[in-house]
Amino acid sequence: MTDHLKKYLLEDRTVRVQAVRLHDTWRAAQVNHQYPPAITKLLGELVAAATLLAANLKFEGALVLQMQGDGPIALLVVECRADLSLRATVKLREEYVVPDTGSLQSLVNPGGKGRFIVVLDPQSRHTGQQAYQGIVPIEGDTVADVLEHYMKASEQLDTRMWLSADGDHAAGMLVQRLPDNGGSAARAGISEEEAVEAAAETWRRTVHLASTIKREELLELDTDTLMHRLFWEETLVAFDPQTVQWHCPCTRERVAEMLRMLGRDEVEDILEEQGKVDVACDFCGKPYHFDAVDCAELFIDKPSLSSQNPPTMH
Fold it and tell me: Could you point out which of 43, 87, 109, 287 has its C-alpha 20 to 30 Å from the C-alpha of 251?
């Protein structure tokens, strides 16, 4: 089975509809993790959302969605690249017991000061260019609410999202109003005012139809069946499906570089305490083992970097 994202346009080209239903990709994201149902739901919905949004990237690079707060879930992260390869992870606070059920706000943002962060990171940057980062409060009861709030706050296109996830599937649908680039009235043989009103009506009608969707339909129906059930009276222009897959670029070399950044003294302290250094990738859970000889080789002809910035995993 291969996971796909599918795109459609309404007949007048003023509204975009996208849908994705992930199984293999979502199962791969969980293979080395045992998440409680509440975390599975939130992370799966964020995975579906990132896939839907990354499908519209205009550059080679990555979209990263992060939720940070003071609840049992300290951090939710999903990275999806323009080719729709993705990875995801969760950071939990050890002092909390994560319940099997719970709302987004209670699990991530009970103190009300949490942040939702969107990063657009081009693969090739110009000199001095930084990744774009947008930050808004975590507002709303669902992942879809948070995304819609961000899109509104950042003055982007009118967007609605419906998301759902369980242990087997992560699914979502996006409806987005497209800007008028001119010429639509002439092509339709109507006035500009009539074109604006027609586009507004298409948007209202599409959102109304999409809003009839049920959580179970998102999870259980394949995309073609779902689109027919929702929009059977509409003429949809369909595009070629895009493949979605799990991909984590971690390597032993990257982990070794992280240990070098950690510094010789810190690595030797771990060796003295444990006799080895074991590191697992935060995203895919792949284990990396470094014995005393491996650790010694890390610092041959390499200066200690312990005084530099703290390590990060990529």
Answer: 43
